[in-house]
Design a protein that fits this description.
The complex is a heterodimer of chains A (111) and B (115). Chain A is mostly beta strands. Chain A is built from no helices and eleven strands. Chain B is an all-beta fold. Chain B has no helices and eleven strands. In chain B, strands 2, 4, 5, 6, 9, 10 and 11 form a seven-stranded mixed β-sheet that branches. A four-stranded antiparallel β-sheet of chain B has the order 1-3-8-7, with no helix packed on it.
């Protein structure tokens, strides 16, 4: 089955700097890659997603890039703010199969 | 607020007991998914229901079962509880059976503690 690896497990970034979280997946047939943000005491919230026919997608300060050849995708957060502090999960899915999640990255924004 | 509701928010019980977790999907969503989140294993998919029928199964133990009712709410039943079952249990919903085409919206979760 699908395996998703996520790095780093923890990341501390100075406020205003950029943060990058990387994931690799094993199933080359995967075609949907969402990113979720989970704040303390809450459920994961979808923040951005990308499909395999697209190489990059941006939404304000958040962007995701996909390299199908290398089977990895990354989350980029620019101009980080304290409210960006959370745990971020990547995931991968083929068609209508189940989502396979990475192990999460705890992002801390240092004021 | 995702529109997905889960009850109870917290549940404390003893080993060997049985509990039921409840989930109400977003209005109009036919698919419900259950996930287990533990410290050492991240988010693990348990099971999916679509319009009352089981659609997909993940790493769900035989001691666990679920169902989706005609009003589309779902219940996850956990029996013969063990210490290792302590975790956050999330429900998510999406609009279509072919959920690969639609994002999943997560509820706030139920924190289960088995003593």
């Amino acid at each position: 089955g699908e395996n998703v690896e996520q790095h780093p497990s923890t990341l501390s970034v100075q406020e205003g700097d950029s943060a990058v979280i990387k994931c690799t997946y094993s199933d080359s047939a995967s075609n949907y890659f969402p990113w979720y943000k989970q704040e303390l005491g809450k459920g994961p919230q979808l923040i951005i997603d990308i499909r395999s026919n697209v190489g990059e997608k941006k939404d304000q300060r958040i962007a995701v890039t996909l390299n199908k050849t290398a089977k990895h995708f990354s989350l980029h957060i620019t101009e980080t703010q304290p409210e960006d502090s959370a745990v971020y999960f990547c995931a991968a899915r083929f068609g209508n199969e189940k989502l396979t999640f990475g192990t999460g990255t705890r992002l801390t924004i240092i004021p | 607020d995702s529109g997905v509701t889960q009850t109870p928010k917290h549940l404390i019980t003893a080993t060997g007991q049985r509990v039921t977790l409840r989930c109400s999907p977003r209005s109009g969503d036919l698919s419900v998914y259950w996930y287990q989140q533990s410290l050492d294993q991240g988010l693990q998919f348990l099971i999916q229901y679509y319009n009352g029928e089981e659609r997909a199964k993940g790493n769900i133990l035989e001691r666990f079962s679920a169902q989706q009712f005609p009003d589309l709410h779902s219940e996850l039943n956990l029996s013969s509880l063990e210490l290792g079952d302590s975790a956050l249990y999330f429900c998510a919903s999406s609009t279509q059976r072919l959920a690969g085409l639609r994002e999943q919206f997560f509820g706030p979760g139920t924190r289960l503690t088995v003593l």
